[in-house]
Amino acid sequence: MATSSKKETAKNIRLAVIATDVVIFTILDNKLKALLIPIRSAHFKKNAYGFPGGMILPHETADDSVRRHMKAKAGIESPSYIEQLYAFSAIDRDPRGRVVSVAYVAIIPADHAQDIGQEAIWADARALPHLAYDHNTIARVAIERIENKLKYSTIGRHFLPNTFTLTELQFAHEVVLGSPLDKRNFRKKILALRCFGHAGKIKKGGRSRPAELFRFVKTKDIIFS
After folding, report:
1. What is the CATH architecture assignment of 155-216?
2. Which terminus of the chain has fewer Cβ atoms in its 10 Å neighbourhood, N or C?
3. Which residues are 55's β-sheet partners?
4. pLDDT-derived band of residue 204, with 50, 70 and 90 as boundaries?
5. CATH 3.90.79.10 in the chain, residues?
6. What contacts 133, CB < 8 A, 6 or more positions away?
């Protein structure tokens, strides 16, 4: 039977409040962007920013909570992609008291990037200002998760509209990974997955040649080696 050097009683147990936060990514101006909202608290400077989030209510799951805060504070109701990232539990992460944050990472396509709350802004995800709480740490973990997952899954498609060219898909990968990819090898790998089908349309415009549009034909993202 496990023992403790200090008896755990209601008097000496320090309970933690559980919250959720979400790092929402998109691609704008050829950069990976993260959504920020103003953080109004006496504990932070007047123009402090951070990620959308807040406390979990007694009747909510973490998933319920993050979607509620995302809609209320970021104006986003249905991201193209969302997953639980990590639980951040540093003792001093919140100056108001003991708060554990269940963080999420989400993606919305660029064509929906303007459909956000009035006070929300997009910031360069790799050059964020000093954020409230431990949100800079959360940002680093979120970026690492997206970069790694892009290498073995099809989540890159969530940065794009429902139909896209292979060039656009490759560019999304390059922006997130921060490095160029070989065009021939990228297309060979993507088409071999058999999850991107012809949309039956051609994209015209600009100085580029007309390009065939593709769409994702599976019901969920594909994991590959």
Report:
1. Orthogonal Bundle (1.10)
2. N
3. 19
4. confident
5. 17-132+142-150
6. 21, 39, 50, 93, 94, 101
Q: What is the pTM for the complete model shown?
A: 0.91
Burial class of residue 100, CB neighbours in 10 A (0-12, 13-18, 19+): middle
133 Ramachandran zone, left/alpha/beta (phi>0; psi -120 to 50): left
Degrees (nearest 5) of the Cα angle 192, 195, 199?
Answer: 110
* Residue range(s) in the chain whose domain bears CATH number 1.10.10.10: 155-216
- Distance (Å, whole) CA 53 – CA 173: 27
User: Binning pLDDT at 50, 70 and 90, where does residue 103 land?
Assistant: very high
Q: Encode pLDDT of 113-122 as tens digits.
A: 999 999 999 9
Six token digits for residue 212: 């065939």
The domain made up of 17-132+142-150 has a fold known as Nucleoside Triphosphate Pyrophosphohydrolase (3.90.79)
The pLDDT value recorded for residue 43 is 78
The overall longest dimension of the chain from CA atoms, in Å, is 73
Please name the residue ranges forming H helices in 56-134: 62-74
Q: Is 53 exposed, middle or buried (0-12, 13-18, 19+ CB in 10 A)?
A: buried
- Residues 219, 207 contacting (CB under 8 angstroms): no
Highest mean pLDDT among 24-33, 37-46, 111-120: 24-33
